[in-house]
Specification:
The chain is an alpha+beta fold and 219 residues long. The chain has eight helices and four strands, in the order βαβααααααββα.
């Protein structure tokens, strides 16, 4: 495909949660025309709340900005945890084991922010992920805790860091003619749609040009 979009997330990021309708709309609108992928961008302790009270304050802020009729729940948050590897690792592990798409990571996010489950704990994350994926929880947990899986998630996070951006969600849109757009912190579909439409148009124009003229002269 001529255009690719990569969505960088942390499963327990509330702004990623609010961006999910946009991601779903993009997949619906561009099905069969754009290549879609998501990767983990782990948040470290500099991005995490220090208390549930602080997290609830953040939820009141984001919830009113997105006009949510419901407030997210902060009971999943456990003070002192430096990163929430478990839910992110389980999401990637489930995909490795055949659960493609978004269902597992969406289930984990829902369990945390809508139900208050402490998905930072391996057993809870694995149980939620296994139910969503239809995979045995022990098999899922075993794969999620392998060194190879951890390296995969760390490499994804390093790829995000190399973009020199800090906000999640982040979207990287690229085309096969070398165009690239990076969005950091954007959660609405409209700017992403405008960019993808422009890239698809340009890629089609280059394909037409190539059909008529071929490769450029070497001299």
């Amino acid at each position: 495909m001529s255009v690719r979009i990569t969505y960088f997330i942390d499963v327990i990021s509330s702004w990623c949660h609010w961006a999910e309708p946009a991601w779903a709309e993009l997949q619906r609108r561009y099905q069969g025309r754009v290549e879609f992928d998501w990767k983990i961008a782990l948040m470290d302790d500099s991005n995490l709340p220090v208390s549930r009270a602080q997290e609830e304050w953040f939820y009141r802020r984001s919830g009113t900005i997105v006009r949510s009729p419901d407030m997210l729940r902060a009971e999943w948050m456990e003070p002192g945890i430096k990163e929430y590897f478990a839910p992110n690792g389980v999401a990637v592990a489930a995909r490795d084991l055949g659960a493609k798409g978004d269902a597992v990571r969406l289930a984990l996010a829902h369990a945390a922010m809508r139900e208050g489950q402490q998905v930072g704990r391996w057993d809870i994350a694995a149980a939620v992920g296994a139910k969503a994926a239809g995979i045995d929880a022990d098999i899922l947990l075993a794969h999620a805790r392998t060194p190879e899986l951890e390296k995969t998630v760390r490499d994804m996070t390093a790829e995000f860091a190399a973009l020199q951006i800090h906000q999640r969600p982040a979207f990287v849109i690229e085309s096969d003619i070398g165009d690239r757009a990076v969005f950091s912190g954007v959660w609405r579909a409209e700017p992403l749609i405008a960019t993808m439409d422009a890239m698809l148009e340009d890629a089609a124009a280059y394909a037409s040009w190539r059909a008529h003229f071929g490769d450029p002269p070497k001299e």
